[in-house]
Amino acid sequence: MEKYFYLVILFPLIGFLVNGLLGSKMKGTTPGLIGTVAVFIPFLIALGVFFNYGHESQPILQNYFPWINIFDFQANFSILIDPLSLQMTLIITGIGSLIHLYSIGYMHDDEGFARFFSYLNLFIFSMLLLVLGSNLLILFIGWEGVGLCSYLLIGFWYKNEDYGYAARKAFVMNRIGDLGLIAGIVLLWSYFKTIEFQAMAIHAANVDMSDPVIIIATLCLFIGAIGKSAQIPLYTWLPDAMAGPTPVSALIHAATMVTAGIYLLVRAHFLFDLAPSVLNLVSYVGIATSIFAAIIALRQNDIKKVLAYSTVSQLGLMFVALGVGAYTTAMFHVTTHAFFKALLFLGAGSVIHALHGEQDIRNMGGLKNEIKSTYWVFLIGTLAICGIFPLSGMFSKDEILTVLFEKSKGLWALSLFSSLLTAVYMFRLLFLTFFGTYRDDEHKKSKIHESPMVMMAPLWVLAILSVFGGILNLPHLIGGESYGKMAHFLDPIFSHSKLATEHMDAGLEIGLMALVVGLVVIIGFVLYNIYVKKESLPKPDMSLRGVEALVANKFGVDELYDTVISKPVLGISRFFGQKVESAFDGISGFFFVAGFKSIGNSLRKIQNGNVEFYLILMTGSIVVLMILQFLIKI
Amino acid sequence: MSVIIVILLTAILVLFLHIFEGRQWVNPLAILGLSLSFIILCLENNSLWGDYSSMIYMTQFAKVFTGTAIIFTILVFFINQSRLKLEEDTNNGDKLGLVLFSLCGAILLFTFTNITMLFLGIEILSIPLYVIASSSKHDLHSNEAGLKYFLMGSFATSIILFGMALIFGATNSLDIMTISEYFSQAEISKMAALGAFFVGIGFFFKVAAIPFHFWTPDVYEGTPSIWATYFATVVKIASFGAFFRLYILLGNVDNSPLYKVLVLIIILTVVVGTLTALVQENAKRMIAYSSIVNSGFLLMFFLNPSSDILSYFGLFILGYGLATIGIFSAIVYLESIGNSNGFEGFDGLGRSQPLFSLGVAICLLSLAGIPLTVGFLGKFYLLMSLSFDQWWMILLVIASSIISIVYYFRIFNGMYFSNKKASAIVAPEVVSPYLNFVVGFCALSLIIIGLFPDFYLNIFQ
Lengths: 634, 461
What we know:
- The structure holds two protein chains of two kinds.
- Chain A has helices at residues 6-22, 30-52, 83-106, 113-132, 136-154, 161-192, 197-204, 212-228, 237-240, 246-255, 260-267, 269-272, 276-298, 303-323, 327-354, 367-370, 372-386, 392-407, 409-434, 442-445, 453-468, 476-479, 485-490, 506-533, 546-552, 557-606, 611-631, and strands at residues 60-70, 73-81.
- Chain A is mostly helical.
- Chain A has a two-stranded antiparallel sheet.
- In chain A, a hairpin with a 2-residue loop joins strand 1 and strand 2.
- Chain B has a domain at 260-461.
- The radius of gyration of chain B is 21 Å and the shape is globular.
- The model of chain B has no long low-confidence stretch (mean pLDDT 88).
- Chains A and B meet through strand 1, helix 26 and helix 27 of A and helix 6, helix 8, helix 9, helix 11 and helix 20 of B.
């Protein structure tokens, strides 16, 4: 099975080429089917490899061809199959297939149907390169590739100018992060003289703790992760990225691409383990982002924006877990988050589809009677993300909280606060959308329709995964002997085992769990009271005052960046463009262009077409050269 | 050896076929013969070349260069095929025969191990070229080009021969191993040094280095474009292949009789070539100067020869050749629809022939040394091969590359950013599939090898 692993990468690429080149000539849903199959077959292959991959298996390095070989710099086009990359591959291709299938329904009457699927396939291809690459350069190709696809897909409806700006913003913000990543790669190469992960890990074993180069390099990698995974201060692009079609938000901006930063940190864990100060920074940035984004989410009224800020907040929680060295815990949350956030986004997509493009929750309400199926899956997603027992989100979030409780009570309290905020904005979203009465006019209400089977099927699959995803990594308390399957699976990639050897006191663990679940349930009831019983509505933006207005306005961070960074930079650029460049043009135009041209013109006159003249000139040159070579000593 | 024999037989067959009413088969037969010789080249073991009284021998370096020359000739013949659809040419067989003969001369230049063979190679390569340059019988420019090429070419050949005679006088041998042993001595006689100097001067002429370049623009401009393609690529490769081998033997020694000349000529070639190319108004002349500047770059590889340099040298010349063929096929297309050779001939091509223009654009980008192409890698390896003491050479390469973008992008500009309406300038005539193939082949190879140069570089090992 491993032999055919190259097909995993190849199929999406072929899908991209076929849809990209021939898609416009195909009829109906053919491009969608091609796109879906091109992701589903790799999923099956990856699944096959996964079941063959025992606990004792060695990581498989597949070297396809030498790629760059310049003096002592060598980069091969090779992939590394180990538990980490295998798990990521399964998430990408598995959830990817479901979202492709869903898109067939969601995008069915879009004129760019084939283009959409070719971009999606290209995205899957790049994302697979990112997680499978055996060295930083292949990872970097994937990293840039997913950035490009994200740009293309956010701006998919490019005729809307705002969407174009959102795409550009995402791209620019990502570039800032990419710069960090490039700097990190260069630094690591100059330090280790290799960019292969396995070789670097071996070298890293001999490096001192808190080596300054490693600290700077990990900091650079972390900047890359901040950009891709939308953390403070580069998170502002993710909410705007909701301009793209909803399946894109589900696939790229919730389940896969935004977790690339977490993947990078886990992949380079052997470096981060050497830099405890950077790891501390990681958890501080994570917790700050998590709470900050959760607070903003409280006052958002766009169904997708709420989910976007929720994603930022959840990613923050994962970084907190990474920061305390709980890599497998973070990966567990990546996985369950991929399930329920994809579910929520696709559910939101189904709502938007049912309402013909309406995204403002103030114009919704009472939808649970109109679109029952969507209501149920959305409810499951909400309960999962809030951490209600026994859904998957509860297990992953509980694991994070347990780890934090052991390591740092402060971080634990803040993370708990952030998790409770999650419950607040998610229940608010749920109640405003599905409960109460429909708030828009009756005419529109008659047109509400449930989404087709092709969209609902992936939703139900994701709902099942969201419910039972916790089984993947049960805590010792519940799982007994078969606890922590994912942790055991991932453990071989770490140089020092990360498995928890001691288990927390069972009573304390139950207590913590009960505390979280209890608080979430209370929040649920309070919000039910506010939004369903009393039918209170979010106030119009205009009437908000003070802190509320600030929160609704996302703390004005966009405006802040605009005033502090964009405007000065544009001002300088304008100064150079209009004043300095024209001055230079005048000078250089005079000296260089005119100068070179006049020299060129006089040289051209030598070429007068007269053979005798040429021969005399050549003979003269020979004489001069002879004198130079043999008579003059330099 | 069978490579040369197959090409020779093809040439003779082509000549006969031409007489016996088989004109339409002449070009395909030539291409077929060349393809066959290429396959034989790939399969044949180098050691089979050991039996020719140490007159010729096929090294791996020679093999790659021979293969490249054969591929380039095939591409030229494909361009030629596109012309045959449009006009009746009663002399096509003669021309193809001559080109094939001259290709045999080129192969001798890669494989010689005795300077008699070197001289024979030069002559076998050059004499057919003089005829081909003037092959457009009723065109005065073509006649002029042929005559000029002949006059100046024989001037250069005589200088080479003079140098060889001096070397023979000093070393009493024609075998290059003996000669190179002699030259590697600490002290060599004045006569030998002078001999090496003259041979070098002759080759500076052959590779069109300034100030021995005068024939190039005039000949390229006057010669029918298809054959000018051959001059700019195969002949260039042949001259450089021979010169590089010779330089390693004669010039790469302490107290080299050629070093100072080489340095001066490189500077002159790059500086003057770049500046003159800047003011050309005719695409063919611009390409001629671009080929001169590239000669300057290729000569820089001579400064620090080593076994690695051989493959980088090969990569550079491959990139140059492919890109030049691509641009020449655009010139051939424009001539076939009656456009002038001036830059304005390219106006609007990007809109009337988008795919074809894309290929041409990639060739231009490669010549200008933009990344992802072989042209970039060639320049990159060139810069890496220069040492820090030669920093002024590095500056020269960079400055020249920057300025060169101006004249390469004049074509680019015309194709894509011309304000004129596409239909008004270029009649929307279909590009011949043969030309499309050639441009597509060149552009794709430039990108594929540009991405994965190791596949090519490893052949040299």
